Prior knowledge:
The structure is a homodimer.
Chain A lengths: L5 E5 L4 E3 L6 H8 L17 E5 L1 E3 L4 E3 L9 H10 L6 E2 L9 E4 L9 E3 L7 E3 L4 E7 L11 H13 L4 E3 L1 H13 L3 E7 L7 E8 L7 E7 L3 E8 L5 E8 L9 H10 L3 H24 L6 E8 L1 H8 L19 E4 L13 E4 L9 H10 L8 E5 L4 E6 L4 E6 L20 E7 L6 E5 L11 H4 L7 E2 L1 H13 L12 H4 L4 E4 L2 E8 L7 E4 L1 H25 L6 E5 L8 H7 L10 E5 L1 H11 L1 H13 L1 E2 L6 H9 L11 H6 L27
Parallel strand pairs in A: 1-7, 11-13, 14-17, 17-19, 20-29, 22-31, 23-25, 29-30
Antiparallel strand pairs in A: 1-2, 3-6, 3-7, 4-5, 8-9, 10-12, 12-13, 14-15, 15-16, 18-19, 20-21, 21-22, 23-24, 26-27, 27-28
Helix pairs in contact in A: 5-6, 8-14, 8-15, 10-13, 12-16, 14-15
GO molecular function (chains A, B): iron-sulfur cluster binding
Protein name (chains A, B): Na(+)-translocating NADH-quinone reductase subunit F
Pfam family, one (chains A, B): RACo_C_ter
Amino acid sequence: MSTDPLVxxxxxxxxxxxxxxxxxxxAARQLGVxxxxxxxxxxxxxxxxxxxxxxxFPKHGLTARKGALSDWNSVEQRYDDKRGLASGRRLGCxxxxxxxxxxxxxxxxxVHRQVVRKAASARAMVMDPAVxxxxxxxxxxxxxxxxxxxxxxxEALKDQWGxxxxxxxxxxxxxxxxxxxxxxxxxxxxxxxxxxEDTHRILGIAPGYYDRPIYGVAIDLGSTTIAxxxxxxxxxxxxxxxxxxxxxxxFGEDLMSRVSYSMMNPGGAxxxxxxxxxxxxxxxxxxxxxxxxxxxQIMELVFVCNPVMHHLLLGIDPVELGQAPFALATSKSVAxxxxxxxxxxxxxxxxxxxxxxxxxxxxxxxxxxxxSEAPGDQDDLTLIVDVGTNAEILLGNKxxxxxxxxxTGPAFEGAQISSGQRAAPGAIERIEINPDTxxxxxxVIGCGLWSDEDGFxxxxxxxxxxxxxxxxxxxxxxxxxxxxxxxxxxLIGSPAQTGTTRCIEDGRTHSYVIYDGTAxxxxxxxxxxxxxRAIQLAKSAxxxxxxxxxxxxxxxxxxxxxxxxxxGAHISPKHAMVLGMIPDVPLDRVTSAGNxxxxxxxxxxxxxxxxxxxxxxxxxxxxVETAIEPKFQEHFVNANAIPHATDPFTTLRSVTPLPDxxxxxxxxxxxxGGRRRRRRAS
Amino acid sequence: MSTDPLVxxxxxxxxxxxxxxxxxxxAARQLGVxxxxxxxxxxxxxxxxxxxxxxxFPKHGLTARKGALSDWNSVEQRYDDKRGLASGRRLGCxxxxxxxxxxxxxxxxxVHRQVVRKAASARAMVMDPAVxxxxxxxxxxxxxxxxxxxxxxxEALKDQWGxxxxxxxxxxxxxxxxxxxxxxxxxxxxxxxxxxEDTHRILGIAPGYYDRPIYGVAIDLGSTTIAxxxxxxxxxxxxxxxxxxxxxxxFGEDLMSRVSYSMMNPGGAxxxxxxxxxxxxxxxxxxxxxxxxxxxQIMELVFVCNPVMHHLLLGIDPVELGQAPFALATSKSVAxxxxxxxxxxxxxxxxxxxxxxxxxxxxxxxxxxxxSEAPGDQDDLTLIVDVGTNAEILLGNKxxxxxxxxxTGPAFEGAQISSGQRAAPGAIERIEINPDTxxxxxxVIGCGLWSDEDGFxxxxxxxxxxxxxxxxxxxxxxxxxxxxxxxxxxLIGSPAQTGTTRCIEDGRTHSYVIYDGTAxxxxxxxxxxxxxRAIQLAKSAxxxxxxxxxxxxxxxxxxxxxxxxxxGAHISPKHAMVLGMIPDVPLDRVTSAGNxxxxxxxxxxxxxxxxxxxxxxxxxxxxVETAIEPKFQEHFVNANAIPHATDPFTTLRSVTPLPDxxxxxxxxxxxxGGRRRRRRAS
Lengths: 682, 682
């Protein structure tokens, strides 16, 4: 009837007329407004809270007067007494429409509320988790129609929630009858359904209405560290994060040495699998303790990892990933039960979802980066490099997305560097070299001061200066190039050529002294010619991989560069570009995505739509195999120069001096030869 | 082209013209002829053997000449050398059509060959198992399209077998890469798919072509005994059968005492669950040893059982089945993994299928009987009684099928009978009483002679005469009635009333002496007045249940009676009818279905179509609850007389004398009172 009250919902703007007495929740459902409810409108769960707005609304063409909603009723009163209802709020299932009204659905009452991932990103995550609780009222058994309790529960889920198909494992079936009777034929079931399934799996059942929060854990399982984020599956909020070293390091620092360990030692793969699973259980235990929750509240784990870690986590021998054609056991996502992975630190019924690998060298971590950064949604041609022991490289825009991995080796992480060390207090992480005096100043991890500032010595008294970490070595080499201490071929000049005694003789080559602590029994921190060579190999591999993708795409330039990975967050864009790690773009077009893989894992944890999306994306990505592309070698050789032998880097040169020096005395090493192609590690 | 050779397949009669050179298997597939192949036409599996027929075939309108099929080729030669090909046989995938030909497909080459269940039955079982092996050739990995091994296997199954969707558990995924490489990119996978699933589950994988037979076990899990049939899942043939006592007997002989045990003893249900699972593992071990196979060959188990055993098997506390409204945890079939039931005597990947229960008192065993006997497919109105401690009763025809259970108690099994014992050597199982002399003669289990035949004493020397078993007591009571020793009310006459000293005083009642071994220290085997009362209670419950279903059906008569259950096979129809256990029908319309529940289990094991059928049937069956039907009591009272107080049994009387005696002296017990309604047991 056209004289029925008009109801307008905000922020959706959906509107319709409803008979007097219609509950707001009912009106919302009929209009397709996103208003949450776990109890199905029984005034129990309070998820359907709304805020009525009163007054003149010319925009909506209505005036909302007091009395436009029914009076506060006993259910709302009881809820308010027990838990407190914020001022102006009503329960959408209790308040009924009496007259024209504008109703605001606050974000926390939206099922599919958006969760902003991080300040730096415009993208948002829509909550659509695989695991959700549902409150239902189940019909009591009847001797005349003797259906089972499970069948009546399924019927209730169908009638009350539109859930077509459910299945229960044996452990749920064992508890079902007791729970239904204890809850006087009401219960809350926790259901799980993946993006590629049509059946909801009952993970848990509790009598009556049960609102203890449910959590999931997003796990970024790296070769060196394992990071985990305990996430509230209703809100998407991270309750707490924690990290742990990957105990597989004792079997080999890089992935290929772990594959070798597996090949050389019978049972070695099993040993590594056990080690990582034990660590994951410990890590989840830490999260549980930190958040003050119980393991039973954790209902799902989502993993992202490189292919070798993927296989070792699943207990699959990674031997095939160590040799061409680098065949994955499976290239789809993997859905499991926690017991399949010997995980005992969660709810017994909890599920596991492992993101798909892109190729034998391009892992689920890269897939997670693709999910988080969504290059396929960009108009700009975006290059994403996830810098680690292996670099995963994605290049794409709305037309096409390409992926490859490149074996950069551990130099970027401070390994194979003479004074290199892991990022830890005492490590030099930033450095500047005065181009006139050739004198350095630096910062060490754990201290906010520069080395030439007052109080620096006191501030570092406990840690000292112990070495140089990954971001430090990149800055050091780039600063040396900008200060004219290093020529484009990568040769360090002699004291005579550079005019500074900080360049010292070191056999037939030279080194640059950043810090001399030897007087106090401390280290001599230098950048040696060998360090430069190691960095050149690493950055050439990275750049060559990017160039190969650009070839495939038919372009010489990109619009944007995103540095991903925990390490990526610490790399200075200017220094990376001076080194020629990444193509020449304006510096403000180089951004850090932080731990994009971890973000992708969280997105997959919070959204089955994201799972479907990444599964599709992974299939569509064009995989480029650097190992078999002849042009890779050519790109690699050209990229050896700093910043590059043939690519002009004009944008960079317009803002940064790159002195045109040459220190070749005939005794310097061959800058293009001697390349030992590292065994691959993704 | 109409001049292409004509190919006629027998026995199907399907025919068509095919170009010269068409393989017979290809022709068969195009015509929809049921010709098996596991290797997909690669000359490996030999499942597609056919027999060409040569000569004049006026019926088919063709003449088949020598040379109508291609010559024996090297593949066939190799197969013949290795395994031998029967005379006249060809491999359908190798022999090609050259000219008009008639081709016979022998039964063993048909996928959906029928397996006749038993000589007595016209019905047949079509092989359609949930578990089947498939040979496939898998594409090798390719770095340019880096899909996983699992995805290429799935692709191969789709291309070569039309299988749309497969999933692999973690244990298959762990072995997949090694198996594919070992088999040089060929493998045999064992797939499983239930009737209500759309995904094939990979249970096992072996390199290359692998033809070790796959078995399933059909298990009839009874309260007293567990019977199991090891069945070849390609042929449906039973390799071996075995039985074992249900060890739960120590917790209570009948089901209700087990439910009580569970209610009275914390952990009692778990204890009983453990006991039965241990027994099942032992039983499967026996089958495996007897058949000379290895546990890994057993890929599926199918269970039928009453509701209490169903719940105890699954580890569900049966407490709800002990009290109204007798709610089942689930009334659908249950599909599980063997590990869910702690079964470790099969392939680790083996599956379990448990038939659905019909109601809280009418179990999956009754469902299996319904599957085996298919009352809903009959024009005749058929009454099926599965006689045991509880009787399951089905009544139906094409219009409708009804089911109930009735608490007969253990009297029919020789329990609660003064001289009663289990069916074992020494037990009287058959008995005749001369109506003139009132003298008995009998047979005991383990001896083929009647007691009045020469050599009987010698033949039973080792076993002796120890008591009377279930079928023996039924015959004894019926013979006493026919000989005029027992009146319709169930009173045994005095020596004076009956004229025989075999009727002896026994307190205020009388007993009939069948065998007096006391002189030699043996037993005095008698039928006491108390035994008669126990049999009356049992048979009244059975008849009342059948009558109740007949009421629901609106009929006073049935067309056929089927006695099912292991015990049913031993009951003599005439004696059962004299007792009034079953309604009055011509004796030749009473048949035994043997162990119909076990047959139903085998059918479900061999056919997913059978699973779908019984799931549907169970939903459609009208369930009648004897406990809440007021008419049950009335039927019970009327059924107390032998054969019956009100139903005339005219058909029976026309062939069998039922002397019209009466021994009521005023001191005899009340034949209708004193009925202690037994606690229910299904």
